[in-house]
C-alpha cells in the first residue's frame, strides 16, 4: 500500500530533495485552472466514453493488436482540456500502448484520434509534438550517457537544423541552437537542475530523473503533456515536490494525462480518472468515483482496497501466494521477463 499522502510543503527539503515548484501556485484565489477543470467535469455522468464539455483529445474505435493479443481496444474517449486526467489499470492493461498510439510512436490497427479537432492518424511523433502533444519517456541507457543539457536539446522540436537545406545554412542552425539552449537552461532553472547541466543524466537521483523527463517534454512548448509514471521510483519524500510540478502544468493551461500506479497520487492530482483493463476502458469519473466502481475494484484495486481481510480471506490469499511461489520455482521465466522492456524501448 502506498504511504498516506502528506500535506503540500509539509516537509522541509533535505539535501537530496527536489525543491518544490514556485510557491505562487497556492495563491489566495486558489488554483483557478484546477477549479475550472473540476467545475467543468463535476456534473458529468460517471460513464465510459462520456462526452466532455471541451475535449482536447478525442479517441474513436482505436485498436492495437500484437499477434493474437489485443493490447488496446478503446471505443470512445474524450480528454478534457486544461485538466489532469489520470490513466490507471493493472500491468498490461494497455496504458503505455495507448500513450504510444496517441503520440505517433505506434500506429493502431483501426481507429481515429484527434487533438483540437485535428486528425493525428499517420503522423510521426515529431509531427504530433509540433502540433503540441508530447509524452515523457523514462531515461533509457542511451539517454543516461548524455548530459542533462544534451537530453534537453533532444527534446527540442522544430529545429531548423534538422532540414537538409537549412543545414546548409549554418548561421540559421546556430541561431536555433542558441535559442534551444536558452530555453533548456530556463527550464533547468525552473526544475532546479541547472547546476547539473553538464552531468551525465545517468548519475541523477530518481527524483531528478523524473524532473528531467518532465523538463525535456516541455522543450517543445506543448499543449498536451502525457506523463508516463511520473512518480515511479521516486523517494516518497520527493513525491510532493514532483506533484507540485505536475499541478503547475495545469496552472499554465496545459492538458495533462498521466499513467500512475500509486492511488494516493492519482487521488491527489487527478481531476478525472480513466481506468483501463485488458485494453479496454472499464470506467471513468472523478477520483472519488473510482474506488466505488465494482468493475475497477474487481479488475484493479482488489476487493479489499480499503478494508482489512477477514481471517478466511487472509488464508485464501496466503494459499494462493504459496501456490504462485511454487509455480515460480518451477519455471525461470514469467511476466517480468517480457515486460521489463516496454514497447517504446524504455526499460522498466
Ligand atoms: N511491442 C510489443 N510487442 C508485443 N506485445 C506488446 C508490445 N507492447 C505491448 N505489448 C503487450 O500489450 C499489452 C499492453 O501492454 P502495455 O505496456 O501497454 O500495458 P500497461 O498498461 O502500460 O502496463 P504496465 O502498467 O505494466 O506498464 C501487454 O500484454 C504487453 O505485453
UniProtKB/TrEMBL annotation:
What UniProt keywords are attached to this protein's entry? Answer: ATP-binding, Hydrolase, Nucleotide-binding, Transport
Is the keyword NADP assigned to this protein? no
List GO terms (cellular component aspect): plasma membrane
Q: Does the keyword ATP-binding apply?
A: yes
Coiled-coil annotation: which residues? Answer: none
Tell me the SUPFAM superfamilies matching this sequence: P-loop containing nucleoside triphosphate hydrolases
What superkingdom heads the lineage?
A: Bacteria
The biased composition feature labelled Basic and acidic residues covers: 325-339
Q: Where is the ABC transporter domain?
A: 57-303
Matching entries from InterPro entries are given as: AAA+_ATPase, ABC_AA/LPS_Transport, ABC_transporter-like_ATP-bd, ABC_transporter-like_CS, BCA_ABC_TP_C, P-loop_NTPase
Q: Which residues form the signal peptide?
A: none
Which E.C. number(s) belong to this protein?
Answer: 3.6.3.-
Task: Give the top-level enzyme category.
Answer: hydrolase
UniProt name for this protein: ABC-type branched-chain amino acid transport systems, ATPase component
Q: What is the lineage of its organism?
A: Bacteria, Bacillati, Actinomycetota, Actinomycetes, Geodermatophilales
